[in-house]
Amino acid sequence: MDILFVHNNFPAQFRNLAATLTLYPGIRVGAIGSRGSSDVERVRLQRYSLEATDVAETHPFARRFDLECRRAEQILYAATAFTKQGFAPKTVIAHCGWGETLPLREAFPHARIITYCEFYYRSQGQDVNFDPEFGSLGVDACVGLQLKNAATLLSVIESDDGIAPTLWQKSTYPAELQSKISVLHEGVDTGMATPGNTGSQRRAHACKRSAIDARYRGRDVRRAQFGASTRIPYLHARLTADPPPAA
After folding, report:
1. pTM surpassing 0.90?
2. What does the buried/exposed string (b/e) look like for 34-61 if buried means 16 or more CB atoms within 10 Å of the residue's CB?
3. In what order do the strands lie in the sheet with 2-6?
4. What backbone torsions phi and psi does residue 181 show, to the nearest 5 degrees?
5. For the chain, is the Cβ count within 10 Å smaller at the N or the C terminus?
């Protein structure tokens, strides 16, 4: 049986699953990813290239979809290359974030397609219009934000199933589609993320600091660090074996 993964930054979230599937007799694993994707042992990786494109002439609301369609074209070429090599996936697992899922139903009409549902954009209650330090988005910006979901909607509708790593991520999707999405947690490598593992402590703290710096660059980083540490005290304690900071 052939199984195909599609992800712009393969292996990304699919690293452990793809590697494990290659250990089963009779299963061939393939992947499609962009030029920067990484190899996984025993996985046949088909890379594609997306040339820099000027979309200035495209309507602002449609620029993201324009780029997603151009990426979808490259995915179609890569899928066709797999087909010519005799690779015929019975299951396709794909991230819908960059338009890569758009051609999959036509490219593999008999495959079971599973869409990885990471996030659905909304103008309220999520990652915009929540911080009083900054002004709210205007109506035009909110419309543009909603239209970022176009490829995602098409992907979920055309797929057989969807998976989301958390209940909250599933909840960001329209109610009409949530029955199609199952929550499948990605798991935690307890061999690495465990108290006393000095390597894991360094990596965890480095990731936490870089995430805070990226999110709050140009803002009050001290406030950000305090907020993050008080919101996730269990994570802090679990990874460092230290008590969480006092609130």
Report:
1. no
2. beebeebeebbbbebeeeeeeeeeeeee
3. 43-48, 28-34, 2-6, 89-95, 112-116, 161-164, 181-183
4. -110, 125
5. C
